[in-house]
Every structure is written in structure tokens, then in C-alpha cells.
Write a structure and sequence with these properties.
Blueprint: H1 9-22, H2 26-42, H3 51-57, H4 60-75
Helix pairs in contact: 1-2
């Protein structure tokens, strides 16, 4: 479905620049931003689903071994390979 939106000039310029920096169209940026906004407003935030819901409520001492493992794995990553 197509629609027309009126945006303040500054918001349009910032959005267009952000889309360009991400290598995507303004249409895709707006669609993603609107989707995220609606998910948050409805309580259907993907960051609160599944393991993230449990992990966020875990005690610090329960999470420490996971943090240590993640830190060790990040030490093995060669940043040059990810550019």
C-alpha cells in the first residue's frame, strides 16, 4: 500500500542521510522504524522475547560465566576480518 507522509524538512534530511549511511532506501528505513515503534508500543518488543526475557532477569552471579565466555570469544575475533 502506498501513502504520502509530510515530514519536517530536518527530519526528512536526517532520515534520508541515515538510510544512505546504512545503504538502504528511505522507504526501508521508515518501514523498519515504524515497525519497531509499533512493537514497542504494543509490548511486542522482540528484545523482550525468548531468552532475552529470562536473561534480563537473571542475577549477576548467574550471568558472570556467560559474560566470561562471550568475552573470551570476542578476544579471538580479528577485527580486520569483519571489515
Amino acid at each position: 500500500m502506498k501513502t504520502t507522509l509530510e515530514l519536517p524538512d530536518e527530519l526528512f534530511r536526517r532520515s534520508k542521510a541515515m538510510a544512505a549511511m546504512r545503504g538502504e532506501s528511505l522507504k526501508d528505513l521508515v518501514r523498519e522504524a515504524l515497525q519497531l515503534y509499533l512493537e514497542r508500543q504494543s509490548g511486542d518488543d522482540p528484545s523482550t522475547r525468548g531468552w532475552r526475557r529470562v536473561f534480563g532477569k537473571a542475577q549477576r552471579e548467574e550471568v558472570a560465566p556467560v559474560d566470561a565466555t562471550v568475552a573470551e570469544e570476542f578476544e579471538r575475533i580479528d577485527p580486520a576480518e569483519w571489515r
